[in-house]
Amino acid sequence: MSLRSRVAAALDDALPAGWYPTWRRAVGLGAPVTARNGVGQLMRTTDVVISAALSPAAVVGLGIADLFASLPFRASGGVVGASATLTSQDTGAGADANRDEAFTQAALLAALVTLPFALVGIGLGTEVLRLVGADAESAREGARYLALVSVPMPLGALAAVSSATLEATGDTRTPTYVSVPASVFNAGASLVFGLGLLGAPRLGIVGIGAASLVAMTARSLVLVGYTHLRGPVGFVRPRDPTIARQIVRIGVPQSAAGVVTAVAVFPFNTLVLQFGTAANAGYQLAWRVYTQVLAPVGSGVGRGASIVVGQRLGERAAAAGDDTDGAGGTSEAGSTDGTSEGPAGSRDDPATLPVARMATALVVLGGGVALALGGGVALAAGSIARLLAEDPAVAAAATPFVTVLGLSGVLGITNVVASASLDAAGETRVPLASRVIGMFGGYVGVSWGLYELLGWGIEAAYAGQFACYVLMLAVTAWGLVRTDWVGRATAMLDERGSVGSDG
Questions:
Q1: Which of 31, 125, 402, 476 qualifies as a cystine partner to 143, CB 3.0-4.6 A?
Q2: What is the sign, positive or negative, of the torsion defined by CA atoms of 90, 91, 97, 102?
Q3: What are the distances in angstroms from CA 289 to CA 86, 119, 156, 247, 403?
Q4: SS3 for 274?
């Protein structure tokens, strides 16, 4: 027996029944997502570095234009998430026809949501950027970039739904195989044409935008084409209004959660700016570390957890339907909270693990990964800050922010994984409440309250960041324990006819 096999056997024996195979499947599904998101973050970092080499106006213009360009994907993000939820459940239930219907309707809705943003970005970029405070030169530079990246926005929304749908069926590798080369091409083309390397014309911010346009268009066409022609799902004529209503019901809270985050960042940034440019630069550097190191891992493990739980919910509902149609024996599938024991089976079979216990196992996995990664970042905060910041004042300001975000990341990644089970069940209201309470109660409320009422200094910002993640995790944990999210998923499966479906 190999060392790997011995370690796996030891873990399987040491952990509660069903935990290790559940962990193994979630990590296997989530690893490609982590890789893809990490490369995507590197691409965005490359764009920022190139713009800094061009001019201050290019930096400001690109930054503000990127904020606007992210809005359509935040707005359609709920539709994308709803597509993943319904697809994972219907995959587990074997309801292939409903899965195709959900994919088609979500793709159309996502494209329609992003279309107005694309038209504004193409035709009114300068006016929009001036409206949010950019000076004339920055607005002009940013508008040139924004017009280019706005062109493929609706197609990009179709690709986002295609990617999420493939992942929800258990194929997380194909979107990664497509997206990683596209991101690498994007970064390379931005360098070559943005800065005029290798004899290419120096196009500046237009070169960055053109590289993004080509990369996003190619990636989107390949993903959408593969999903429809070779994937397990395909486009059909939309007919079922129940599925459309469920997409909206699941998706609106998810989109709102993204908007909450975007809005809450502004007053927090305003607070940090009270302590000078170095403090703000230190915060931005620390946040870059979080988004480059911690966020991709959290999203990967969370995505894997969501797929595993969603498919298990579908399997459970299908088993309950079979019991109802047959002799009517009792099993785990028949419990309302998903905590009763399933039928006897192999210890290595995750299908024997009740849904609620599966969610618990995944939260423990997320917490362990978060503790190792976030703790490591916190311990190495000083070294990380000195490595990334040339200015000693910025490095000194960044060190405590990196420490706090590393410690907060332990809670943040755990919260992402815990929320994934709720999202997989279609219970997106609790994660929205978690985001609202955490961002406005902690990120904004605690930080500004300590600053204004108690006269704290920059420590108020540190406390607000940590309080944000404490509150978010507390609300999500309450939702997992106290709400009937398993019953909600079963009811939605039954409502759209996925239980007892012939495929």
A1: 125
A2: positive
A3: 33, 33, 26, 34, 11
A4: coil
**Which is it for the CA torsion 251, 310, 497, 164, positive or negative?**
positive
> Alpha carbon of 128 to those of 125, 136, 281, 299: distances in Å?
5, 12, 25, 31
What's at 333, amino acid-wise? A
Q: Residue 449's CB: how many other CB atoms inside 10 A?
A: 17
Residue 363 tokens, joined: 């939260």
Region of 149 (left: φ > 0; alpha: ψ -120 to 50; beta: rest) is alpha
Which residue bears the tokens 């759209």? 496
Give Cα 296 to chain centroid, integer Å.
8
Neighbours of 497 (CB within 10 A): 14
Residue-wise burial string across 163-200, b where 16 or more C-beta atoms lie within 10 A, e elsewhere: bbbbbbbbbbbbbbebbbebbebbbebbbbbbbeeeee
* 370 touches 409 (CB < 8 A): yes
User: Tens digit of pLDDT per residue, the chain (503 long)?
Assistant: 677 777 778 877 888 888 999 999 999 999 999 999 989 888 888 887 888 788 777 877 887 888 788 888 888 999 999 999 999 999 999 999 999 999 999 999 999 999 999 999 999 888 888 887 777 888 888 899 999 999 999 999 999 999 999 999 999 999 999 999 999 999 999 999 999 999 999 999 899 999 999 999 999 999 999 999 988 999 999 989 999 999 999 999 999 998 888 788 888 888 988 888 788 888 888 888 888 889 999 999 999 999 999 999 999 887 876 555 554 443 444 454 555 444 444 555 555 678 989 999 999 999 999 999 999 999 999 999 888 877 888 889 999 999 999 999 999 999 999 999 999 999 999 999 999 999 999 999 999 999 999 999 999 999 999 999 999 999 999 999 999 999 999 999 999 988 765 55
Amino acid at 32: P
Closest CA to 194 of 48, 56, 60: 48
H or E element, residue 32: helix 19-54
Dihedral of alpha carbons 390, 393, 397, 403, sign: positive
Tokens of 4: 């790997």
Paired tokens of 73: 């994907």
Residue type, 426: G
Backbone angles phi, psi at 474, to 5 degrees: -65, -45
Q: What's this model's pTM, rounded to 2 decimal places?
A: 0.89
Distance CA 189, CA 214 (A): 10
Q: Nearest-CA neighbor of 375 among 294, 455, 317, 297?
A: 294
Handedness of CA 87, 251, 415, 176 (dihedral sign): positive
Single-letter code of the amino acid located at 89 = Q
